[in-house]
Amino acid sequence: MKFFIDTANLNDIREAHNLGVLDGVTTNPSLMAKEGIVGYDNVMKHYKAICEIVDGDISAEVIATDYATMIKEGEELAQLHPNIVVKVPMIKDGVKAIKYFTDKGIKTNCTLVFSAGQALLAAKAGATYVSPFVGRLDDISTDGLALIEQIVQIYGNYGYPTEVLAASVRHVMHLVQCAEIGADVVTCPLNVITSLLKHPLTDSGLATFLADHKKANS
Protein backbone atom coordinates (compact mmCIF):
# COMPACT_ATOMS: atom_id res chain seq x y z
CA MET A 1 0.00 0.00 0.00
CA LYS A 2 1.24 3.49 -0.86
CA PHE A 3 1.44 6.23 1.76
CA PHE A 4 0.56 9.76 0.61
CA ILE A 5 0.61 12.76 2.93
CA ASP A 6 -2.38 15.08 2.79
CA THR A 7 -0.95 18.54 3.30
CA ALA A 8 0.63 21.56 1.68
CA ASN A 9 3.07 22.07 4.56
CA LEU A 10 6.60 21.66 3.23
CA ASN A 11 8.08 20.80 6.65
CA ASP A 12 5.59 17.98 7.15
CA ILE A 13 6.27 16.71 3.64
CA ARG A 14 10.03 16.73 4.27
CA GLU A 15 9.61 14.90 7.58
CA ALA A 16 7.46 12.19 6.03
CA HIS A 17 9.89 11.91 3.12
CA ASN A 18 12.86 11.61 5.46
CA LEU A 19 11.11 8.80 7.31
CA GLY A 20 11.55 6.81 4.11
CA VAL A 21 7.95 5.69 3.63
CA LEU A 22 6.39 8.49 1.58
CA ASP A 23 5.08 7.68 -1.90
CA GLY A 24 3.24 10.88 -2.81
CA VAL A 25 1.30 13.96 -1.76
CA THR A 26 -2.30 15.13 -2.02
CA THR A 27 -3.33 18.76 -1.69
CA ASN A 28 -6.43 20.85 -2.18
CA PRO A 29 -7.33 24.57 -2.10
CA SER A 30 -8.19 24.40 1.61
CA LEU A 31 -4.78 22.96 2.49
CA MET A 32 -3.06 25.61 0.39
CA ALA A 33 -5.02 28.37 2.11
CA LYS A 34 -4.15 26.89 5.51
CA GLU A 35 -0.46 27.43 4.71
CA GLY A 36 -1.13 30.99 3.49
CA ILE A 37 -0.47 30.08 -0.15
CA VAL A 38 -2.68 32.41 -2.18
CA GLY A 39 -2.58 33.70 -5.73
CA TYR A 40 -2.05 31.72 -8.92
CA ASP A 41 1.71 32.24 -9.19
CA ASN A 42 2.33 31.35 -5.53
CA VAL A 43 0.23 28.20 -5.77
CA MET A 44 2.07 27.02 -8.89
CA LYS A 45 5.42 27.78 -7.27
CA HIS A 46 4.39 25.80 -4.21
CA TYR A 47 3.47 22.76 -6.29
CA LYS A 48 6.93 22.90 -7.87
CA ALA A 49 8.51 23.04 -4.41
CA ILE A 50 6.59 19.91 -3.38
CA CYS A 51 7.74 18.11 -6.53
CA GLU A 52 11.35 18.93 -5.64
CA ILE A 53 10.96 17.09 -2.32
CA VAL A 54 8.96 14.00 -3.26
CA ASP A 55 9.65 11.74 -6.22
CA GLY A 56 6.09 10.46 -6.46
CA ASP A 57 2.63 11.44 -7.60
CA ILE A 58 1.53 14.89 -6.44
CA SER A 59 -2.21 15.61 -6.68
CA ALA A 60 -2.92 19.22 -7.64
CA GLU A 61 -6.57 20.22 -7.70
CA VAL A 62 -8.42 22.27 -10.29
CA ILE A 63 -10.63 25.06 -8.96
CA ALA A 64 -13.07 25.26 -11.88
CA THR A 65 -16.34 23.34 -12.05
CA ASP A 66 -17.00 23.71 -15.77
CA TYR A 67 -15.42 21.46 -18.41
CA ALA A 68 -13.55 24.04 -20.48
CA THR A 69 -11.92 25.75 -17.52
CA MET A 70 -11.07 22.44 -15.84
CA ILE A 71 -9.24 21.42 -19.01
CA LYS A 72 -7.33 24.72 -19.09
CA GLU A 73 -6.36 24.54 -15.41
CA GLY A 74 -5.51 20.84 -15.57
CA GLU A 75 -3.22 21.23 -18.56
CA GLU A 76 -1.41 24.10 -16.84
CA LEU A 77 -0.92 21.98 -13.72
CA ALA A 78 0.27 18.95 -15.70
CA GLN A 79 2.94 21.08 -17.40
CA LEU A 80 4.54 21.91 -14.04
CA HIS A 81 6.14 18.49 -13.52
CA PRO A 82 5.76 14.90 -14.80
CA ASN A 83 4.65 13.76 -11.33
CA ILE A 84 1.64 16.08 -11.18
CA VAL A 85 -1.73 14.31 -11.01
CA VAL A 86 -4.68 16.53 -11.90
CA LYS A 87 -7.29 16.33 -9.15
CA VAL A 88 -10.83 16.67 -10.50
CA PRO A 89 -14.15 16.72 -8.58
CA MET A 90 -16.76 13.99 -9.05
CA ILE A 91 -19.25 16.00 -11.09
CA LYS A 92 -20.55 15.54 -14.63
CA ASP A 93 -18.04 17.90 -16.22
CA GLY A 94 -15.36 16.40 -14.00
CA VAL A 95 -15.95 12.93 -15.44
CA LYS A 96 -15.79 14.39 -18.95
CA ALA A 97 -12.51 16.10 -18.03
CA ILE A 98 -11.07 12.85 -16.66
CA LYS A 99 -11.77 11.17 -20.00
CA TYR A 100 -10.09 14.05 -21.83
CA PHE A 101 -7.00 13.97 -19.60
CA THR A 102 -6.80 10.18 -19.85
CA ASP A 103 -6.79 10.35 -23.63
CA LYS A 104 -4.00 12.95 -23.41
CA GLY A 105 -1.90 10.76 -21.10
CA ILE A 106 -2.39 13.07 -18.09
CA LYS A 107 -2.83 11.32 -14.74
CA THR A 108 -5.95 12.15 -12.73
CA ASN A 109 -7.34 11.81 -9.23
CA CYS A 110 -11.15 11.90 -8.97
CA THR A 111 -11.95 13.47 -5.61
CA LEU A 112 -15.05 13.91 -3.44
CA VAL A 113 -16.24 10.36 -4.07
CA PHE A 114 -18.88 9.11 -1.64
CA SER A 115 -20.52 6.17 -3.44
CA ALA A 116 -19.56 3.05 -5.38
CA GLY A 117 -21.49 4.35 -8.39
CA GLN A 118 -19.37 7.50 -8.49
CA ALA A 119 -16.21 5.38 -8.23
CA LEU A 120 -17.41 3.20 -11.10
CA LEU A 121 -17.93 6.25 -13.32
CA ALA A 122 -14.44 7.54 -12.50
CA ALA A 123 -12.87 4.19 -13.39
CA LYS A 124 -14.84 3.99 -16.64
CA ALA A 125 -13.52 7.45 -17.59
CA GLY A 126 -9.97 6.24 -16.93
CA ALA A 127 -9.06 7.96 -13.65
CA THR A 128 -5.62 7.07 -12.31
CA TYR A 129 -6.88 7.36 -8.74
CA VAL A 130 -10.28 7.59 -7.12
CA SER A 131 -10.55 9.23 -3.70
CA PRO A 132 -13.39 8.02 -1.46
CA PHE A 133 -13.59 10.03 1.78
CA VAL A 134 -13.60 7.69 4.78
CA GLY A 135 -13.78 10.17 7.64
CA ARG A 136 -16.43 12.43 6.13
CA LEU A 137 -18.74 9.43 5.65
CA ASP A 138 -18.12 8.39 9.25
CA ASP A 139 -19.15 11.93 10.27
CA ILE A 140 -22.66 11.32 8.94
CA SER A 141 -22.95 7.86 10.53
CA THR A 142 -22.10 6.01 7.30
CA ASP A 143 -19.40 3.32 7.15
CA GLY A 144 -16.60 4.87 5.14
CA LEU A 145 -14.46 1.74 5.28
CA ALA A 146 -17.31 -0.34 3.86
CA LEU A 147 -17.28 1.93 0.81
CA ILE A 148 -13.53 1.38 0.36
CA GLU A 149 -14.08 -2.38 0.50
CA GLN A 150 -16.95 -2.18 -1.98
CA ILE A 151 -14.92 -0.17 -4.50
CA VAL A 152 -11.92 -2.50 -4.16
CA GLN A 153 -14.20 -5.46 -4.93
CA ILE A 154 -15.85 -3.78 -7.94
CA TYR A 155 -12.52 -2.77 -9.46
CA GLY A 156 -11.20 -6.27 -8.88
CA ASN A 157 -14.24 -7.82 -10.55
CA TYR A 158 -13.52 -6.03 -13.82
CA GLY A 159 -9.79 -5.41 -13.68
CA TYR A 160 -10.00 -1.62 -13.61
CA PRO A 161 -6.48 -0.18 -13.25
CA THR A 162 -7.79 2.82 -11.26
CA GLU A 163 -6.20 2.83 -7.81
CA VAL A 164 -8.35 3.23 -4.69
CA LEU A 165 -6.94 6.16 -2.74
CA ALA A 166 -8.53 6.26 0.70
CA ALA A 167 -8.88 9.93 1.69
CA SER A 168 -10.02 11.64 4.88
CA VAL A 169 -8.07 9.02 6.85
CA ARG A 170 -7.96 10.43 10.36
CA HIS A 171 -6.32 7.87 12.65
CA VAL A 172 -4.26 4.70 12.80
CA MET A 173 -7.23 2.32 12.79
CA HIS A 174 -8.54 3.91 9.60
CA LEU A 175 -5.15 3.39 7.99
CA VAL A 176 -4.67 -0.20 9.16
CA GLN A 177 -8.19 -1.20 8.19
CA CYS A 178 -7.71 0.34 4.73
CA ALA A 179 -4.65 -1.89 4.38
CA GLU A 180 -6.66 -4.93 5.49
CA ILE A 181 -9.37 -4.40 2.89
CA GLY A 182 -6.97 -3.71 0.04
CA ALA A 183 -6.89 0.05 -0.56
CA ASP A 184 -4.05 0.83 -2.96
CA VAL A 185 -3.21 4.15 -1.30
CA VAL A 186 -4.00 6.05 1.87
CA THR A 187 -3.56 9.77 2.23
CA CYS A 188 -3.48 11.30 5.69
CA PRO A 189 -1.81 13.96 7.85
CA LEU A 190 1.74 13.43 9.13
CA ASN A 191 0.57 12.63 12.67
CA VAL A 192 -1.36 9.57 11.44
CA ILE A 193 1.74 8.18 9.75
CA THR A 194 3.99 8.81 12.74
CA SER A 195 1.39 7.34 15.11
CA LEU A 196 2.10 3.96 13.48
CA LEU A 197 5.45 4.06 15.27
CA LYS A 198 3.89 4.14 18.70
CA HIS A 199 3.11 1.25 21.05
CA PRO A 200 3.41 1.27 24.86
CA LEU A 201 5.12 -2.12 24.89
CA THR A 202 7.76 -0.81 22.49
CA ASP A 203 8.41 2.10 24.85
CA SER A 204 8.52 -0.03 27.99
CA GLY A 205 10.61 -2.72 26.32
CA LEU A 206 13.17 -0.21 25.11
CA ALA A 207 13.32 1.39 28.55
CA THR A 208 14.00 -2.03 30.09
CA PHE A 209 16.71 -2.87 27.56
CA LEU A 210 18.46 0.44 28.17
CA ALA A 211 18.22 0.07 31.95
CA ASP A 212 19.64 -3.46 31.81
CA HIS A 213 22.45 -2.29 29.53
CA LYS A 214 23.29 0.50 31.97
CA LYS A 215 23.42 -1.98 34.90
CA ALA A 216 25.62 -4.39 32.97
CA ASN A 217 28.10 -1.64 32.15
CA SER A 218 28.17 0.14 35.49
What does this structure look like?
It holds the Pfam family TAL_FSA. It comes from Rufibacter roseus. It catalyses: D-sedoheptulose 7-phosphate + D-glyceraldehyde 3-phosphate = D-erythrose 4-phosphate + beta-D-fructose 6-phosphate. It is found in: Cytoplasm. The chain is α/β, with parallel strands linked by helices. It is built from eleven helices and eight strands. The chain has helices spanning 10-19, 29-34, 40-53, 67-78, 92-103, 116-125, 134-139, 144-158, 172-181, 190-195, 200-216; strands spanning 2-6, 24-26, 57-61, 84-89, 108-113, 129-132, 163-166, 185-188. An eight-stranded parallel beta barrel has the order 1-2-3-4-5-6-7-8, surrounded by seven helices. Helix 9 (172-181) links the parallel strand 7 and strand 8 (185-188). The longest helix has 17 residues, at 200-216. The chain is globular and about 75 Å long.
The best one-word shape is globular
Give the oligomeric state of the chains in this entry, treating copies of one chain as homo and distinct chains as hetero: single chain
The overall strand count is 8
Give the strand order, joined by hyphens, for the main sheet.
Answer: 1-2-3-4-5-6-7-8
